[in-house]
């Protein structure tokens, strides 16, 4: 539908102003500002992203990169138990057993139900020649794993 006689078509008005550099800039400025505010947040990795990255590096036997990713995860979120757990595994690989023990103990402070951390701590003690400490951790692992299995079975109900 054409505008009434003597009234310019709306597209003609837009084309006239769009040709002006100042109008063009001011017209696009809010869009640019919004994009500049949103894009960095979309691109920024979270702690869990670094943990996943660490797992991938570990699977590809790139242990130095995995260690770096786990450390970045912990730096982003000092309460990320999975970051400490992955780091403990890397420390075991490098035979840094004291650091592995600390990493696994940190996991257990953050999440006392993380039964795999008990197993890994026991394994680390075993590598250090501390059999009694290892056995204690293995017993705790078995007990918690059994409880977790019972809970999951109970929650699933009768089959």
Characterise the protein shown here:
The protein is 79% helix and 0% strand. It has 159 residues and is mostly helical. It folds into 2 domains: 10-41, no CATH class; 47-156, Tetratricopeptide repeat domain (Serine Threonine Protein Phosphatase 5, Tetratricopeptide repeat, Alpha Horseshoe). α5 (81-93) runs antiparallel to α6 (97-110). The longest helix is centred in the C-terminal third of the chain and has 26 residues, at 131-156. The model has no long low-confidence stretch (mean pLDDT 85).
Topology readout:
Layout: H1 10-18, H2 21-43, H3 47-59, H4 63-76, H5 81-93, H6 97-110, H7 115-127, H8 131-156
Helix pairs in contact: 3-4, 3-5, 4-5, 5-6, 6-7, 7-8
């Amino acid at each position: 539908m054409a505008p009434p006689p003597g009234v310019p078509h709306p597209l003609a008005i837009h084309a006239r102003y769009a040709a002006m550099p100042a109008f063009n800039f001011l017209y696009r400025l809010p869009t640019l500002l919004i994009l500049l505010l949103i894009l960095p947040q979309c691109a920024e990795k979270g702690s869990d992203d670094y943990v996943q990255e660490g797992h991938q590096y570990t699977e590809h036997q790139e242990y130095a990169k995995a260690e770096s990713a786990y450390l970045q995860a912990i730096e982003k979120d000092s309460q990320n138990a999975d970051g400490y757990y992955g780091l403990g595994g890397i420390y075991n690989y490098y035979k840094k057993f004291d650091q592995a023990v600390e990493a696994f103990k940190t996991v257990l402070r953050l999440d006392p139900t993380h039964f795999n951390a008990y197993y890994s701590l026991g394994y680390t003690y075993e590598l250090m020649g501390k059999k009694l400490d290892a056995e204690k951790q293995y017993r705790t692992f078995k007990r918690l794993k059994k409880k977790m299995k019972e809970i999951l079975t109970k929650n699933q109900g009768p089959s």
